[in-house]
């Protein structure tokens, strides 16, 4: 298991909002508009699912949360710090926000699994036994300890996905953003990941197409479609509204049903 | 991997030159360059004539002269060499503004400057009006050995793979708290390059195998190769420029 | 100045000599095509493309030597020879030169024969001969491979640069007289530095590949895997 | 929808077995053993799911089915043709077997989506209107028609996955092999893909970690673990045997249950 006890003293976080995204618009260089004014707030410690059809802009939004993409309209604030072009600010934001990319090949680049997992914490200044412990714990958590000395690009897709998750867990970020973490994982690994995530004292934003998984992990869910947030509600309520889901190419697997509360959550 | 569609030098517009099949453009460009190189260096007027031809083609191709001028800076090193020759050259010398210059060297410098520049301009006109993929298609239709076009095709594709993998590695690093100004600051230039090479290879290998799985056997599908191949008319149209150049070169040789 | 030497532009060498070397290059390339076809299997085809792309890309990053005016770049003959063998290797370098001359005007089209002779044929051949030799003499370790790649790079760059001097002596459009010796010296000096840079890049790249995927290194194909301590089997890396 | 009516005359397929894999063993160049003697037969027209934990060797097995990987022990036979090094045989086998790779980035390489989809059928010799129709149909089937002129690398991950499926559908293979086709697809796309696959008159082998999806599509399922087939049974029976599933890191999502028949199918 990942223990967060050994974390460095928490920065003086005066802001109760972990993430605050306001009016973010973004077009890719080829002119394709991906985000058309996204507003979204995530209070500290909440676990939120980000749902939406293919091409909705979920990944584009995720890449804004630590300043990898920027340059459109709007602001992104992370625990009070606003993403800008300043190197020091960006470095601090990237320390706080850990992103697991949708494609594990975007995440892994060092010659061995262990080195890759150690890379983030080493950049945070950890050394020696502490660093080793971080690596061991993270690899343990995703069940990849026995592969620690292998080359990441020689792993199976699902194994790479697990290592990708470990690289971010090892950094003990305050805010954990996962883009489709469960895809290509075997069912047991999926459940194990859910248990780990549930046990972490972090703010969590998880992009997923697996609605039952979202329900299992997150109390609140958002739907992003065509670059805008179109719904924001407790996950159970949201998943109970089949009309809404169907409008956005979402649906529960056959035979799966949820009891919702009041359908009063749609965004105008 | 969007390889080979366009390259930095391609000017995306429509013009009669853009529409010409690539093989005739390549042939015309090569023939033109050979005519230029064969011209005696003393025939100054002939080089003026070539320059006029280049300007005419650029106008028809709707390629700006300023673009041509800036892009031709690539030959700057040759220009430096050309300017060194009047000092290095042997034989008869003249004095100009207090500098003692070799006559042969002056001619040599001019020769390199004129022929080099015209050659670069001709390449730029080809590059500006032809996508990389068409260029390879043209080489293929000119019966360039298949193994060469195959290597060239992969070269273009893997340029994209290299760039793509370099981008991925950069994103992976900055989002985990590293702050590199260059990709290779991790363990020195070469180590980063080695890692990038291996990574690009393994991605490229998988892409190649996926192509093979879809029936690739070393050449692009025939249906694509044959579409828009040159007709006799195309050859005639494109031949005007090298023919004019050959005329100039012949005249220059005869007139001495 | 060596950029010039390495990518000879139109007008530096006279027509007849350029034509003679074009014929020579054509014959040599034809041989490479014939031999390369047998080599180019499913494993080598992507590698050949990547080697060409890598040389192409790295040639774009000229590294300055002494001053900004003098800059040099990877020639790639040694890298190609180690990874894909002499035949396909020469073709890779030739492809880079052809594409660069066609679309960048980098190296005159009419001088292509000279450029191909120097960099693709001479550079790769010298590198491969050295590699074949050194891999037999040196211990079969990572260091041995690194030294092999390094030495092969330096020497092949030097030889390629002297190819230009020879061509200039045969058909330089301007008679530089006694300066020819000076030219040879300058070329050698500058290219020693370039060769060292190229050697470092080649050695690290090859070692990285050999550590993870020894099966991809053509020069090691008929040898035992690194770091086996055994001597080379008969008929080792030379073929 | 994909219509198979215009397919070239079916080759004289005398063999009722579409796929016949015998004793296949494989080690990767770095020495890692991935397959330890796989035996498997798939009759013509059947739809079979290949299940198993991460790193079991599923992808490695898939890559053997058209000779992309070879060189270990054992034989692979496709409709009577045995995979070997002969170019003509390989070409014919690759014409028959269409593989959708686990990573869409491995599959897409041309400048536009439409060209990429056309690549396979064009290699089969199709041209003109027939080729255009193949492309249009395949893109329609995966709902990517509006993106036909975009560059594949500028699509979202899920969109790339769909195009990857289209590139293979357009070839009208006799045997369709899909490696995790539903991962990263939005739920509606997942259902649409299932409907398409169910309608195709092909032999189908589908690798998946989504057990309900396997049940929905395939009558028979195999479990591959540690490089060996460890179970082969009707999907419903297999999924009912929770002990067996658990042994191989498989499990049904919470709340999902299947009625099985007899537990008499385990492989010795
Ligand atoms: N590099 C790019 N260049 C241009 N357009 C892009 C690029 N990446 C994504 N897009 C476009 O932007 C839109 C949003 O893409 P994004 O990747 O954010 O979608 P997504 O919600 O993550 O989808 P998925 O569920 O398929 O991962 C899509 O329409 C996509 O085609
Ligand atoms: N290129 C490679 N080099 C070395 N070993 C590899 C390579 N690819 C895969 N392996 C190893 O071979 C085994 C089987 O891998 P494979 O990709 O076939 O698994 P898989 O069943 O497809 O898993 P997943 O569900 O995660 O996709 C794994 O242990 C993996 O680590
Ligand atoms: Mg996405
Ligand atoms: Mg797999």
UniProtKB/TrEMBL annotation, chains A, D:
<comment type="function">
    <text>Part of an ABC transporter complex. Responsible for energy coupling to the transport system.</text>
</comment>
<dbReference type="InterPro" id="IPR027417">
    <property type="entry name" value="P-loop_NTPase"/>
</dbReference>
<dbReference type="Pfam" id="PF00005">
    <property type="entry name" value="ABC_tran"/>
</dbReference>
<keyword id="KW-1278">Translocase</keyword>
<dbReference type="InterPro" id="IPR003593">
    <property type="entry name" value="AAA+_ATPase"/>
</dbReference>
<feature type="domain" description="ABC transporter">
    <location>
        <begin position="19"/>
        <end position="251"/>
    </location>
</feature>
<keyword id="KW-0472">Membrane</keyword>
<keyword id="KW-1003">Cell membrane</keyword>
<dbReference type="InterPro" id="IPR015856">
    <property type="entry name" value="ABC_transpr_CbiO/EcfA_su"/>
</dbReference>
<keyword id="KW-0067">ATP-binding</keyword>
<dbReference type="InterPro" id="IPR017871">
    <property type="entry name" value="ABC_transporter-like_CS"/>
</dbReference>
<dbReference type="InterPro" id="IPR003439">
    <property type="entry name" value="ABC_transporter-like_ATP-bd"/>
</dbReference>
<keyword id="KW-0547">Nucleotide-binding</keyword>
<dbReference type="GO" id="GO:0005524">
    <property type="term" value="F:ATP binding"/>
</dbReference>
<protein>
    <recommendedName>
        <fullName>ABC transporter ATP-binding protein</fullName>
    </recommendedName>
</protein>
UniProtKB/TrEMBL annotation, chain B:
<dbReference type="InterPro" id="IPR003339">
    <property type="entry name" value="ABC/ECF_trnsptr_transmembrane"/>
</dbReference>
<keyword id="KW-0812">Transmembrane</keyword>
<keyword id="KW-1133">Transmembrane helix</keyword>
<feature type="transmembrane region" description="Helical">
    <location>
        <begin position="44"/>
        <end position="65"/>
    </location>
</feature>
<keyword id="KW-0472">Membrane</keyword>
<dbReference type="InterPro" id="IPR051611">
    <property type="entry name" value="ECF_transporter_component"/>
</dbReference>
<feature type="transmembrane region" description="Helical">
    <location>
        <begin position="109"/>
        <end position="127"/>
    </location>
</feature>
<protein>
    <submittedName>
        <fullName>Cobalt ECF transporter T component CbiQ</fullName>
    </submittedName>
</protein>
<feature type="transmembrane region" description="Helical">
    <location>
        <begin position="235"/>
        <end position="255"/>
    </location>
</feature>
<dbReference type="Pfam" id="PF02361">
    <property type="entry name" value="CbiQ"/>
</dbReference>
<dbReference type="InterPro" id="IPR012809">
    <property type="entry name" value="ECF_CbiQ"/>
</dbReference>
<keyword id="KW-1003">Cell membrane</keyword>
<feature type="transmembrane region" description="Helical">
    <location>
        <begin position="72"/>
        <end position="89"/>
    </location>
</feature>
From TrEMBL, chain C:
<feature type="transmembrane region" description="Helical">
    <location>
        <begin position="190"/>
        <end position="212"/>
    </location>
</feature>
<dbReference type="Pfam" id="PF01891">
    <property type="entry name" value="CbiM"/>
</dbReference>
<dbReference type="InterPro" id="IPR002751">
    <property type="entry name" value="CbiM/NikMN"/>
</dbReference>
<feature type="transmembrane region" description="Helical">
    <location>
        <begin position="145"/>
        <end position="170"/>
    </location>
</feature>
<keyword id="KW-1133">Transmembrane helix</keyword>
<feature type="transmembrane region" description="Helical">
    <location>
        <begin position="44"/>
        <end position="66"/>
    </location>
</feature>
<feature type="transmembrane region" description="Helical">
    <location>
        <begin position="116"/>
        <end position="138"/>
    </location>
</feature>
<keyword id="KW-0472">Membrane</keyword>
<feature type="transmembrane region" description="Helical">
    <location>
        <begin position="78"/>
        <end position="104"/>
    </location>
</feature>
<keyword id="KW-0813">Transport</keyword>
<keyword id="KW-1003">Cell membrane</keyword>
<protein>
    <submittedName>
        <fullName>Energy-coupling factor ABC transporter permease</fullName>
    </submittedName>
</protein>
<keyword id="KW-0812">Transmembrane</keyword>
